[in-house]
Amino acid sequence: MATSEPEERLCRKSPDAKLTVESWKRHIIRQLKCRDKAQKTLFQDVIRSYVNLLERCTQKAFITKGILSATRPLLLPSSEDSLSSLKTATGELAYQVVELQQEIKIKEAVLDKQHARLSETQDDLKEVQLEHGRLRSCVAEVQERNQLLKNKYDSLLECCQHTEAAYRKEKLYGSELLEDMIRWKQQAAARMNSRNERRVRAREAGIHRELEVAANKKVNIYEVPQSASLPSSPSSQRSESGERLERSRGRLFRSASATSPRILSSIRDLFEKKRRGNSVCSLEEDFCAPLGICLAARVPARAIYTLDAHELGINAARFSPRSNLLATGGTDRVIKLWDIKAGVLHNRGTLEGSNEGITSIEFDSTGTRILAASYDKSALFWRLDDCVPKFTLTGHSRKVTAARFKCNYRQVVTGSADRTVKIWDLHRAACIQTIEVLSYCSDVVCSEYYIISGHYDRKIRFWDSRAASCTQEVPLQGKVTSLDISPNHRELLSCSRDESLQLVDLRMSNTRMAFRAEGFKCGSDSTKAIFSPDGCYLAAGSADGSLYVWNVSTGKLETRLPDMHRCSVNAVAWSMSGEYVVSVDKSRRAILWSDV
Amino acid sequence: MAEESSLSSLEFSSSLPPPRTRIFKIIVIGDSGVGKTCLTYRFCAGRFPDKTEATIGVDFREKVIEIDGEKIKVQLWDTAGQERFRKSMVQHYYRNVHAVVFVYDVTSAASFRSLPAWIEECRQHALGQEVPRILVGNKCDLRHLAQVSTELAQQFADAHSMPLFETSAKNPQGGKEGGRNSSDHVEAIFMTVAHKLKSQKPLVLSQPAGGNTVTLSRNEEEEQRGNWGCSCWRS
């Protein structure tokens, strides 16, 4: 409505100004149309719907008026209907209620049942739990038992192992015992053997003694004719040295218990020996040269000659068994030969060939050959007419400390620092036997049956020269430095570092005699002590440079000869004539002693 | 065993007989279990031992017997037959032995077969032929179990010029089965050996002296061996 007002106004104005107004009017109309178009059309729908709405509203109001007037009578029958319907509804509802209630009951019953089941289940559960607990305890128990069993098993196993170890130990012990037993048996067997041998020897000796007694009784009967035949016997026969005599005596023992003709012949044998002994006594002055037997050694009383014999220290000295020829060997690698004339030592020659110092010297029975042991691990063998060694016996691995002829002179025995004793055949110049010893061998000697060796382990060992078995050991108090065997082969002299000389009886080796002296001191590990050629005296040099001589029969010191040596005496030699003694020392000095 | 040891210790402790009593060292060797111990025990104690165990090393048994008025001590060396019990002792067995008794078991052919080995061992220890040897077949009371016939043994003994004896240390009376098979008394066997030894040259230590004399004496002994044939032993 508001919009129509301005249009009317515009329309009224337009008659006022006809031309202009016309255009104006048109313009305004146009403007208006435009405005109308923009403003009216937009709201056309709203207006229309508003009108519509109004119409409907009035319509509604009419309707409601009509209805309100019409519903009052209409409401009663409809409420009855609704009542009935309500009633039916209520009935339905009641039915529904009943149904529901039934349903509830059913549900409750179900619930009850379920409750019952639940409780039952719970009971079951409880029971099962109980059972579970029981089983668990059972398991625990079983486990415990298992543990126990395991422990028991373990302990048994341990026990078993223990027992096994014990068994092994016992077994070991058993075998040790067996070995011990075998060792004891071995010793017993060796003892039994040596006892048998001793007894046989004692028996022989007894028979020999009886024979001697018998021989002495009847000596007058035979002496005259036999001594008459003596001087004609050639000297070469006589020279078959004491060792041969010894052997014939040995034979004599063996045949002793034989039939009577044998005894007779052996007695005769004995007389022959006796006769020789007598003859030697009667010819004491000239016997010394051809014979290897001395009947009376003379104890030295004073030094008659002093000489620096070698360039270096002298280790060994030895007289020839046939003459007053002396051999000395020193650290200066040579052996020098000396002759004694008018109480003076004359150099007779030099034997060369050793590469190191000489440790020991020995003459053979003829006095024409010399055997020496050397630091250069060999033993050397010279003939006196030749200054070059005939043989060199090599094979030891350390220095050779001693070399000796065996009784038959065809073999040589050497002892060495390499703990072996070797036996050599001189014909082949070859080692025929090696005896392994446990200890450093310082000296060897040979008797008729035995090889005897002295050792640094304080023992003297006896070897059966055939079987290479140790038949006997003689223990000493100190390292053995030297050995010597008496001229009659019955006694063994040893010098040891306990400052004593020991005399061992070879026939009854348990009897011994010790020789000591105040001031006597062993100067080195190779100090050599010797028998006098008649076996009545012992001689040894001491560390203080004195010479000591003991008497074998009394066991006492015979003499002490001091002050000539300036240092320790290494070796002593006693001439076969019994007249001279030579002592040599470390400071290359040699001293000749005599009784006059 | 204890009995034996006490016996032997008793023998040891007894003071040495006067040196004039000669001792004959006789070794008894043979396989293990042939009855060396029983044999020697029988001879020295006069009865069969109740129970013996393997000999270890050697057992010594001695008995003084009298022959022609001379008292002679027979020293039997009952040696171990098992190698492990004897290995280190063998040289002691053979040292200065005067006679060797080889023993085999007539019920064991193996013990008979190993005799050559024992003889060889004997030879290796440089035992001269002059040392008397005898062969003894033991356990002949078990004649029904015998595996070694007397003929075979006799052949063997002849081949090695040894006299053969068959005996039983357990039952020396033996079964008399006719012929000369009746077994020998243990005592008689050793007495025979002792007689033989006594009639031999006086015994000496068999040490080498290296001289001619020894060679000679050996020869003599060998000559004497001629008497030591087997023929004279069978009577």
Structure description:
The complex is a heterodimer of chains A (596) and B (235). By secondary structure, chain A is α+β, with helices and mostly antiparallel strands. Chain A has helices at residues 4-13, 19-217, 219-229, 235-238, 241-254, 260-282, 284-287, and strands spanning 302-308, 314-319, 326-330, 335-341, 344-351, 358-363, 369-374, 378-383, 391-394, 400-405, 411-416, 420-425, 430-436, 441-446, 450-455, 459-464, 470-475, 480-485, 491-496, 500-505, 512-515, 529-531, 537-541, 547-551, 557-561, 569-574, 580-585, 589-594. In chain A, the strands form seven sheets. Chain A has a four-stranded antiparallel beta sheet, with no helix packed on it. In chain A, strands 2-3-4-5 form a four-stranded antiparallel beta sheet, with no helix packed on it. Chain B has nine helices and six strands; from the N terminus they run αβαββααβααβαβαα. A six-stranded mixed beta sheet of chain B has the order 2-3-1-4-5-6, with helices on both faces. In chain B, strand 2 (58-67) and strand 3 form a beta hairpin. The model of chain B is unreliable at 1-17, 174-182 and 203-235 (pLDDT under 50). Chain A binds chain B through residues 178, 181-182, 184-186, 188-190, 192-193, 196-197, 199-203, 206, 244, 247-248, 250-251, 253-258, 406-408, 410-411, 448-449, 464-467, 469, and chain B through 16, 19-20, 22-23, 25, 56-58, 60, 75, 77, 85, 88-89, 91-93, 95-96, 126, 201-205, 207-211, 213, 217.
